Each structure stands twice: as C-alpha cells, then as structure tokens.
Amino acid sequence: MSNVYFKIHPDMELYIQDGDPLIDSYEVWSQLFETNENIDEFFANRYIKYEYHPD
C-alpha cells in the first residue's frame, strides 16, 4: 500500500450558473494532478497566474 497524504488548500474555485434555463443538466468534473511542486507553487502556477481581472 502506498502512502498518500492530503493537504487542504485555503483557495478554491467557484462556478456560478448563468441563470439561463438548463438544456440537459450541469456537468461536474474533478482533476487529479501529479507534480513535484509543493501545494502553494502548484496552485500559483496552475490557477493564480491565469486569473482574469476585468477592468
């Protein structure tokens, strides 16, 4: 059995439905990544550097 460790990161993603009626349903997915980066480096490289900040 392998050793698996989990850490809770304080940031999260949130998606809000646009309010229009659904055609079929919502799609939910999860992503699993393997990296040599620590959690803060991974989060910054994967998410923070692509944040959209409208004017």
UniProtKB/TrEMBL annotation:
Protein name: Uncharacterized protein
